[in-house]
From TrEMBL:
Protein name: DUF317 domain-containing protein
Superkingdom assignment: Bacteria
Pro residues composition bias: residue spans: 242-251
Domain DUF317 intervals: 52-109, 156-222
Residues annotated as transmembrane: none
Amino acid composition bias (Low complexity), ranges on this chain: 261-274
Region of interest (Disordered), ranges: 238-288
InterPro entries registered for this protein in UniProt: DUF317_SPDY
């Protein structure tokens, strides 16, 4: 959504459509929803940050010094000592607002318990159907296509963002460690060289995925700094200046106050001539 207070906008231009924005390179907005729950935060010697839920069953890595371009890696576990039940990755160019949408939804799911943050997608379910993740995009005019027999895709108007869903059996380990995951959301003209990408494995809860697609589908532009050309797709995004808010129309009270401020000041009391009952006024002098 647009901000009403110009002072709170971190940028001098709006980027639209918002899927042509990129990362702000500031991690705090994505971390804060989970830090607010009291999750344990620690850093390694390289400066990577790690958040762990109190029960150890959800873990987030913010990895600017990681081995690849997977900046954000979030995994959930049925058993804190077992393999991940699901995993999501945002690469280092993915818009920060989309990460924050996910971590906000994850924080809410964690408050509600394992039945929510470990809820496997279930076709036909009212609140777990995978289509729930697609619905926000359909409502904004994204179009279905099928680029491969094993892949359903839905593409943004303009063709510069796509959500892919791969059918069939997938290797869970490969889903977690590569881009060959069940869900693949990316911007650009080719998935091989995207502007940014997000992946999610088979058992990622539909509600968490929907939080991301709702953020992507939101028609409101995203604020960025024009000079920071790495924070948006320079050759494709539309930029519009962020203007300070116009002055509000004066109220009747404002008009009265302004008029009062323009009246001439009264003469000081000492300068006002006064008649006295004990003195007579001076007679006028002779006319010349």
């Amino acid at each position: 959504m647009l901000h009403d207070d110009h002072e709170t906008i971190d940028g001098d231009v709006y980027v639209s459509p918002r899927h042509l924005a990129r990362s702000t390179a500031v991690g705090d907005p994505g971390l804060d929803p989970l830090r607010g729950l009291g999750w344990d935060l620690h850093h390694d010697d390289l400066g990577n940050a790690y958040l762990t839920a109190p029960d150890g069953k959800v873990r987030l890595g913010y990895l600017p010094e990681g081995d690849d371009d997977g900046l954000w890696r979030i995994n959930a576990y049925k058993d804190a000592f077992g393999p991940p039940a699901w995993g999501v990755c945002f690469n280092d160019a993915a818009p920060t607002e989309f990460v924050t949408a996910f971590t906000n939804a994850l924080a809410e799911a964690y408050r509600q318990g394992p039945d929510h943050y470990l809820a496997r997608p279930l076709a036909g379910s009212a609140d777990r159907d995978p289509f729930l993740a697609v619905d926000p995009l359909i409502n904004r005019g994204w179009q279905f296509n099928r680029p491969h027999l094993s892949t359903f895709a839905i593409t943004a108007p303009g063709g510069l963002a796509t959500l892919e869903y791969t059918t069939g059996d997938l290797d869970p380990a490969i889903e977690l460690d590569t881009r060959d995951a069940r869900w693949h959301l990316w911007a650009g003209t080719s998935s091989a060289r995207p502007f940014w990408y997000i992946t999610a494995s088979t058992d990622t809860p539909a509600a968490l995925l929907r939080a991301v697609t709702e953020a992507v589908a939101d028609p409101a532009p995203l604020p960025r700094w024009r000079d920071d050309t790495s924070s948006y797709v320079k050759d494709h995004a539309q930029l519009s200046p962020i203007l300070p808010p116009s002055r509000p129309s004066p109220t009747p009270l404002d008009v009265r106050r302004a008029a009062a401020s323009r009246r001439p000041a009264a003469l000081p009391a000492a300068s006002v001539p006064r008649w006295s009952t004990t003195s007579r006024p001076a007679l006028p002098g002779p006319r010349r």
